[in-house]
Amino acid sequence: SSGKQTSIRCKRVETDCPECRRGLLSRSYNFLTFPSNVIVPAALFSMTGARDQGKTYDWKLSLLSARPLKAGILPAHMRNFKLAESLDQAVVSLVNQVEGPQDVEL
Predict the structure, then answer these.
(1) Position with higher pLDDT, 16 vs 98
(2) Collapsing DSSP states into helix, strand and coil, what is residue 14?
(3) Three-class SS of 64-75
(4) Which residues 6+ apart lie within 8 Å of 63 measured at CB?
(5) How far is residue 25 CA from its own chain's centroid?
(6) Residues 6 or more apart from 78 whose CB is under 8 A from it?
(7) What values do phi and psi take at 18, rounded to 5?
(8) Percent of the chain at pLDDT above 90?
(9) What is the pLDDT of residues 26-59, one digit of tens each?
């Protein structure tokens, strides 16, 4: 199990502004608590967009913070995670084991 997960999604509400329509549509923040010895690879969460033929998505993954909860634990790094993309979906997976316990904000 991948422990506690908290997800926050922000969506643009106004769509009548031409300049706004070219910008970011939504942003998702995920805060994960990793216990020790998570088995890898492990899918952590996915994001899905609308299935429109003319719509494209630019998925990005950033590690905002990694905070070990015990002394001597190495903090998580971007190389521990993978973003797998398709036309309308992206899946974030843990591909290298993260020492735990620690809190990771993606």
Answers:
(1) 98
(2) coil
(3) CEEEECCCCCCC
(4) 76, 77, 78, 81, 104, 105, 106
(5) 16
(6) 61, 63
(7) -60, -40
(8) 32
(9) 677 777 777 777 889 999 888 888 777 777 788 8
Neighbours of 66 (CB within 10 A): 20
| Residues 6+ positions from 36 with CB-CB distance below 8 Å | 99, 100, 101
Give the total residue count for the chain. Answer: 106
One DSSP character per residue, 51-102 reads: --TT----------EEEESSTTPPPP-GGGEEEEE-SSEEEEEE-S---SSE
Q: What dihedral do alpha carbons 67, 70, 76, 80 form, nearest 10°?
A: -140
Secondary structure of residue 1 in the 3-state scheme: coil
pTM of the predicted model, to two decimals?
A: 0.70
